[in-house]
Amino acid sequence: MFPFSARAGTPAAKMPPVPSATIKARASALRAASAQANLSHLKAQIGKSLTVLTERGGLARTPDFTPVRLAGFEPNKIVHVTITALQEGQLQAVSNRTGPVAPAYAVAAALQP
């Protein structure tokens, strides 16, 4: 999020300026709404079984790119997980499988027609 800054020669540059206090108040309200929407999204994931792509440092990503903490997997693996909790703003997950985990490139290749 960033405040508008007029560019000479554009139609928006001809519009009357908005007071600085209004700009700050609107930006603050949008940041608060964004934070609330993100928190609602994260809470809605708890208990779901999802497929994630593992990354470095115990991080994984859901298909919609939501970050998830998942320990014990090397990067670039597709893992089936259950989202167990939301701690300090991050989803926590455990693996649903005990068998081998497929590398992401193998899963992508299998999906090719």
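[next item in queue]
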Amino acid sequence: MSITFRTAPDAPADADLLAVLVAGDAADRATAAHPALDHAVLARLGFEGKAGAVEVLGGEGGRLVAAVGVGSADGVDEPALRRAGGALARAAARQAVVAVDLGDAAAVDARGGAQALAEGIALGAYSFDRYKSDPEPSRITDVVVVAGDDRADAVAEGLTRAGRLADAVRWARDLGNAPGGSLTPEELAEAAVAMAGREGLVVEVLDRDAIVAARLGGLLGVNRGSTQPPRFIELRHVPDGPSRGRVALVGKGVTFDSGGLSIKPADSMVGMQGDMGGAAAVLGAMSVVRTFAPDLEVRAYVPATDNMLGGDATRPGDVLTIRNGTTVEVLNTDAEGRLILADALSLAGEAEPDAVVDLATLTGACMVALGSKIAGLMANDDGWAGQVRDAAERAGERVWRLPLPDDYRALLDSPVADLKNVGPRWGGALTAGLFLREFVPDGVPWAHLDIAGPAWADDADDLTRKGATGFGVRTLVALLEGFEAPAGALGP
């Protein structure tokens, strides 16, 4: 359920809880303005104003009052506000109407600060309870941010942006959390079509026959072991007026990954419905592209299949022919994401975009290198890599650039085909990136985000619950909103 965000000059009388943002080194200022926040009581309870700390106290007339930590007064920024919003959502989950006094965060940019705070509240309140008999979703329905007349318009704009963006992330989480036996490739395509109809996007879905005609050999090869037919989804937003350029988004859409004949251990299959986290991020971003990047032409490409073990499943040693004519020897059927992305990158490149970015839950090797909360960034263009990195920083999603060493390319040489789909064990994230680079036309700036770690959470934190996180939606939106054609772009 979406949360309504609005601004008002004062906290409404019907608010169930009033939250005050408090900096740890300026708590006396906040408590002086709000007598219900007794400084001595907060100190006895151990509240120090750290970012994400929340202490709820009783107030007048039955209304609760919460002190919400935002860190030190001179260090309050958007990430701290986003975290504070998430923590507040957890603490206030049983309240319907929540008022927020910006307090010690009032000096932060009004629009950006309000957006970050509201994003945190909406994402912190998320739960996936579609299959629970007795769900306990957050009861928050209305959030009122107190702002004076001089800041009201900017705060209201930030709240509106946050609402749209948070809905996109929450939808991406819903897609990623849906069981693989329920969200089949066909169901994913239907969800994309419904979204495109609501948002005024052009959509085309290829069924198996059309995929064969399009020569998408990687997608067909991965799908061979499945009883669920594949789909290839293309979405387009074309501006009504002049365009700032053309960007292609590519998302891996493996709706469940058993590993194929290179079967995963049972424990490693848990959570594999989230192997379409890249597709979910791309679809989520496209759902708000007309809001955040109306003057940019954006095309999205999502190959969708599951990876199963049917009687005619692709065998280790089989050779597939990708859309661009490159042949690939498949040595490990659990390295399937790169095969379907190869087709999608080939198609994306044929449209001659100014830049391409793909997102994929691609390698466990990236998680070994960067852990579960940081995505690996690889690119063939420094300027484009910088735009992606900066967008992720603005969005509050962490990425780290990894190299694409040219001498490692030989590790993918095959004795029987143009390429093999895996290299040696060491450097697996890098050889996967080098494999994908083979399907990007020369001269097209391209970036790859390996989101295997942050796309899925094994533990809850202020902004996420266990399961799909929707990682990448906010980065893509920030990237599209601030896009500038890289110097190496082909142009129209």
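[queue empty]
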